Amino acid sequence: MAASQRTVPPDRADWPAERPHNVPSGTVSAMTAGPRAGPAIGWWLPRLALAAILGLAIAVAVDLGRDGGLSRLLGRGGAWPPYDARGEWVAIDGRLLYLDCRGSGSPTVVLEAGMGSDSATWSPVIDQLASLTRTCAYDRIGRGRSDPGETGDLVRISDTLAALLSSAGESGPYVLVGHSLGAVIARVHGSRHREQVIGLVLVDGFDPDVFDDWIFPLLGDHQGRYVGHTSDLWKLVGSVEHLDVERSKDQLRAADVSGIPIEVVRAARYEAGLDHEANARIAASTAAGYEAMSPGHVRLTLAVGSGHMVQVERPDLVIDAVRRLIDEARRTGSAVGLARCEATIPRRAS
Q1: pTM of the predicted model, to two decimals?
Q2: pLDDT score, position 290
Q3: Which residues neighbour 146 within 8 Å (Cβ) at sequence distance 6 or greater?
């Protein structure tokens, strides 16, 4: 491994600036200007307005709390906090990798983005996670602010991540949070670094083995539509991420994360051509597939109402999943079992 070097970004002029949130000049005065109220109503009108405003604010706060918070509301509307790039570059094997670590505490949460994505994909959750414990997001080789290059395969990605964290002075134990392809990377990394990884959060994971082994056999007459489904996805991943697909397939099959606590946060799915009972069987089999990864140590949460970008549309569920692993690790001092997988499938709207 080549010598590592840490640098802070010398200039952010080429990075997207945040949109200013300026209130147009005169807005406040336009709202408050006008003739003064007569003496008959002047004493109670301001109090009534204040009471109405306070009541509305309380009602909005309660509704937001019930609905998962402001971040979920922004995610549902297709907007979320812009990513504030506070990271640094760390030289690994002659290439600069971008690393953004915030907060303090143990364990350290490491965020692994999905295919073609980078650290910015975690903007809806990174600050809230950093308020709980040390939290790091990074850009793989060829992604985001990191240097271009070949990622190699899943094992090489894992080795590069380990070197990055070590060179940056970030210490375990770690909770790995992986979205989509990042879930596969997290599983391989957890298998290779069991002494440091005390938990995994798989956010709507790619997980082709779960589909092939636990879902495809139940598709019945619809199997024809999905023949080669995971092979096509692997090809896409290989093309976008410059990944050696065949080696990566073997490495995923060999990954053993048994005994590691796993939180699965997965968007609810429904095959329109199947009845409710068939969809329920698929949901149960999917849960069993994840349970088989680490028997007795898996909890599955369905992100009902969310699409693939769960960390954007239901950031509250991702944060809660990470918090459970952090709390349990701090309470026990070691990784322990979670509740067994349970899943239900929502009924199709009539």
Answers
A1: 0.76
A2: 97
A3: 89, 95, 96, 97, 98, 118, 138, 139, 140
